[in-house]
Design a protein that fits this description.
This protein is an alpha/beta fold. The chain has helices spanning 16-28, 52-73, 79-82, 134-143, 188-201, 238-244, 263-267, 285-292, 339-351, 353-369, 374-387, and strands at residues 3-7, 34-38, 85-90, 105-110, 128-131, 148-150, 174-179, 205-210, 252-254, 272-275, 297-300, 315-317, 320-321, 336-337.
């Protein structure tokens, strides 16, 4: 019997949950044991830049998922009677989904950074809880007596792997990548402060930022002197914000939201990447993708990103200061990286070509050695689902 598994989020290649949904759809499209179902409609416009062979391989599963969704919305399906396993997406505060659905087994996938949880009563409906880092697993076990399973997220090694540069960028410049939406947790204020100091000594340095997202925080300032504002056209003025905070315009490139399938072409042009979040519930997807592409990564040694750090596979920032909690916001285990240590890491990678090559090679090998791929993620999730039945 092929077990239907309803994933209560969407498939997309533009953001974290969507990338997870798309890769599970791809991995399970022809699986003999599990059938992937998404709670949001799957349309080709939601999957920009997915190559036609991949689309062809997943499209029958997508059509079946859309048909199931229509039946579910029309009230013509009884999930428990049909033997459907439901996996809910739970976030900060672990709020219940807007519409309660329970299957023959119901699983909560808990991706949260705020450690302040007023109540865990809403977890009572779940047969098990999933998370994507050891930090989150430890927190969940302290909050609930429900079984907790850790399944790390992955990358697609057919896309993210070391390769040659295209030659489109000036080879005489030093390119530093930073990804993730602008918010306090992602610590882009620390990136700007560190890069400003580094770039003042190295005029050939360029910060390449992919920070735009629908959830970017207008007004974010952190430790910077100027907050993020909107331009006259109404869009967030990231270019102006970075310049106002001391980075020269010719040393900053702002990238638009980019489909995940195109990111390898960006990352392979980079000399290094800086991912210094104050907290990660998972393990930071841009960091994993950069490592897989053979880009040396500077990583904050805190929360979920600790699960990526090993000997010589990255530049770990071990100085982690406490992060004060705010009203209704818990920051247990969060860490504030030292700007001085970020600058020192950038200087080391800039001056030592062999160090860059060694860390790049070790990082790419580590991703595969530790099975941090979407195929392995899908296999582990399938085993967990079937093990509950």
């Amino acid at each position: 019997m092929r077990r239907q598994v309803l994933l209560r989020w969407q498939a997309s290649n533009l953001f974290g949950w969507g990338i997870l949904g798309l890769n599970l759809l791809q991995c399970w499209a022809s699986d003999p044991d599990v059938q992937p179902l998404l709670e949001s409609l799957i349309a080709q416009r939601h999957l920009p830049s997915v190559d036609p062979l991949r689309l062809s391989a997943i499209w029958r599963a997508a059509v079946a998922s859309n048909r199931f969704l229509d039946e579910l919305k029309a009230g013509r399906l009884a999930l428990q009677q049909q033997g459907v396993v439901v996996i809910d997406a739970l976030g900060n505060g672990l709020p219940p989904p807007t519409r309660r659905l329970t299957g023959i087994r119901t699983i909560g996938r808990c991706i949260f950074e705020n450690t302040h949880v007023e109540s865990t009563r809403q977890l009572a409906i779940y047969d098990s809880l999933l998370c994507a880092s050891r930090w989150a697993a430890d927190l969940l076990r302290s909050l609930s007596d429900k079984p907790v399973a850790l399944i790390h997220e992955g990358i697609d090694p057919a896309l993210f792997f070391p390769g040659p540069r295209s030659g489109v960028l000036d080879p005489g410049r030093f390119y530093v990548f930073s990804g993730g939406k602008i918010e306090f947790r992602k610590a882009h204020d620390l990136v700007v402060l560190a890069f400003r100091e580094f770039a003042a000594r190295h005029p050939e340095a360029v910060l390449v930022a992919m920070w735009s997202s629908p959830w970017t925080q207008e007004g974010f300032q952190g430790h910077l002197r100027a907050p993020l504002r909107r331009a006259a056209a109404g869009t967030l003025d990231i270019q102006g914000w970075v310049a106002e905070n001391g980075v020269q315009p010719h040393q900053f490139i702002e990238l638009p939201p980019t489909p995940n399938h195109l990111m390898p072409f960006v990352l392979r042009e980079m000399d290094c990447a800086v991912q210094v979040s104050r907290c990660e519930a998972c393990t930071n997807l841009p960091a994993k993708e950069a490592m897989a592409c053979g880009v040396p990564v500077i990583l904050a040694n805190n929360t979920g990103t600790r699960d990526l750090i090993d000997a010589d596979n990255c530049m770990a920032l071990n100085t982690q200061g406490p992060v004060p909690a705010g009203p209704g916001v818990g920051t247990e285990g969060w860490g504030e990286s030292s700007v001085e240590e970020i600058v020192a890491a950038l200087e080391s990678l800039y001056t030592d070509t062999q160090l860059r090559k060694r860390i790049a090679a070790r990082g790419a090998a580590w991703i595969l050695e530790h099975r941090r791929t979407w195929t392995q993620h899908a296999a582990a999730l399938k085993a967990h689902v079937l093990g509950l039945l």
